[in-house]
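This week, study the protein below.
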Amino acid sequence: MSYEYLKKETTKRCFLLCALYPEDHSIDVKHLVRYTWGLELFGKADSIEEVRIQVLEAIDYLKDSCLLLKDEDVERYVKLHDIVRDVALWIASKEESDFLIKSRLELLNESFEPCKAILLLNREHKIFPEKLVHPNVEILLLNDCDIQGTCFQGMKELKVLSLTSFSSCVISLYALTSLRKLRVLHLAFFEDLSYLGKLTTLEILSLRTTEFEGLADELVRLVNLKILDLTGCRFSSRFHPNVIRRLSKLEELYLKGSSIGEESDDILLEIKFLTRLTALSLSISSSHFIEDFEFPRLEEYNIFLRGTQDKLGCPHPEQWGKFLEEAARKISYEIQGLNSVVNLTKRSLKIEGVFPYNVVSQLLENLESLQVFDIKDEYIEGLTDQTQQIVSVSVILQNLKQVRIENCMNLEVVFQTEKVEGNEAPPLLSNLKSLRLKRLIDLSCIWELPTQHVRLESLVDLRIEDCPSLKSLFSVSLAQGLVLLEKLKIIGCGELKQIVTELEGDEEVLGMGPTMWEKPIFSATMFCLLFGFVKSQFFGLLTWEWAAFLIESKIHNYIQRERE
């Protein structure tokens, strides 16, 4: 597809915006939305959500036109092929594009041609040319770049600014007070936030650092904020949560990993005042749960509810090794689990230690990702009929895309229901892409479901580790739906004798004759990692004996059959 054939001007602008990023860079769609809003690339919009819808529509069109690539590692990221990016930069350099981009320091030094976008995002330390004047620049993205405050005096049109500094040379934010059109600001590793409150035109603010002082006094003056992103920010002094409620125009609030949610007793009450809120990211201790709390109507959420036992006390000296191991495991959860879910789904919930069903029940109906750690119940709330049901289990199972359950010692079954609502509703688990089960010592069965209403047609990644009581994985009818399965990892499941088990009702499947088996059960190219099997009945009801403890193999069933 040629750039010239893109019908909508918004799609063209979104394409050129992607060219801002370096080669092979993973482009966060969330950032594209924020930059688009700040630059008003699509004209005036009533809400961030309106811009997000247009950006996602443009990205889908660009991917269908092969001008953008889907990032294979993270679903909500995209990439621009090197050659396509070169073309995009050439298009942006043409006068009629009105979007000249300078992405290398030498281009700034060699040319005085005015431009609208400057980005220096490589990891090398840089010094921004002090004497250059850029009166037309609207977006400036700098990574590890020393810049003098005087450089901003001539940037009267600047609307989007991102500064990430790893050096000791950090400008005072007073230098930004002359930027009367600044709408989007991202600061990383800045310690002095004095004068931030004077940037009253800001509508999107993102901060990244370890500790802040005096932020609350500055934030309270930014009454026009629509997005506040304080992910991972810690505060050396107590942050007064009533600051949040005074930001009444907020549409998106990101506090995950921030001490605001973890240490504030009233953060949920403050959120209740944000009537325009559509996106929320939050970490909160169970001691701060409010039983009858009602979340705003959220389009996106990523919420982590910690149990009170998560706070690690000082152990007895004889238990110090176990204490450190437990602490390391919890940190591993944070690094490996939370980030991946944020990028994979729009609506995710992580529960640790206790499952406050009444608090989160209103989020379950459209939940896409569920992670559960360290609970002691025999069932997972929301995944089984055996527990309270404010929201139908079948509705929850129809929407889930990712499930991860670890260290739940008494859990016996993961998915369980006998009821399926609606004849025309999608099959149960038909959207499930990833299932990870680990350290579930009492787990004997994964699914107790009416198999005629279950389809695992979207499952790509299945990982099961240290589930010693598990005896089988799939019935034949379930296995037949695994057309997209790419990765199967099984470790430490000593009682697992059969991967595919013939159950009552499977006779009809097996009785369909040889033509039924012309395509294998697992028809996708798949990577297998199997550990600890001795005698296992495996794919297609065939028996393999595993003499080794670790076997890695590429299974190309369908391709091999085609060759034969």
Notes: Residues 368-383+394-417+426-503+523-532 form a domain with the Leucine-rich repeat, LRR (right-handed beta-alpha superhelix) fold (CATH 3.80.10.10). Residues 320-344 form the longest helix (25 residues).
